[in-house]
Design brief:
single chain; Arp2/3 complex 21 kDa subunit ARPC3; transmembrane; globular
Length: 179
């Protein structure tokens, strides 16, 4: 029997810091309806850090959101909407177009309400449809906010995160990240 691999504290600390940044970014803009930096940050994290760390940061962020705001139905949605975005972001790592990334982030903001309406299917299709349709104006704001933050901020954030990752000696070695 092989001994369990030794866990280095560095990836755990980085994951915790990534989650803390997500939470602080979300809280700092919470006074604006559906304008957030979580989508942008997860897109950047996925470009720089191993998938395991990004998904770990999402899980910690989701748990902290539940602790701060309560574990309501909205919280269940966070358990799948952010991991879905991380997985979609993996496909965007290969593109060099900032416009493509910004359009994808905006499109995800537009689809966010539809994804969040899925748990309401338990109360019937009418409940899910009503929830989604009533939120369309917020989805439009979400779309615009994601596009307008991703277009100018993605490249400098990725450069900064990459520099910090290299200076910390934390090159990804777990096979999750591909060049």
């Amino acid at each position: 029997m092989r001994p369990a691999p030794r866990l280095s504290p560095r990836p755990l600390v980085v994951t915790a810091l990534l989650a803390a940044i997500l939470l602080l970014a979300q809280i700092s803009l919470s006074f604006l309806p559906n304008i957030e930096l979580v989508t942008l940050l997860l897109l950047c994290y996925t470009a720089v850090f191993p998938l395991r760390q990004v998904l770990g940061a999402v899980l910690v962020f989701d748990l902290l959101e539940g602790i701060l705001y309560g574990f309501g139905l909205w919280w269940v949605m966070y358990l799948y909407v952010w991991p879905i975005w991380v997985l979609l972001s993996l496909a965007l790592r290969r593109t060099s177009s900032g416009v493509v990334r910004a359009v994808a982030a905006g499109g995800y903001g537009l689809c966010f309400g539809a994804l969040c309406a899925l748990p309401y299917l338990a109360f019937g299709p009418g409940a899910a449809l009503a929830n989604w349709v009533s939120g369309i104006p917020f989805d439009i704001a979400h779309c615009a906010g994601n596009f307008l933050t991703t277009l100018p901020l993605y490249t400098p954030l990725v450069k900064g995160l990459s520099l910090l990752q290299r200076q910390g000696g934390g090159a990804a070695t777990d096979g999750d990240r591909q060049p």
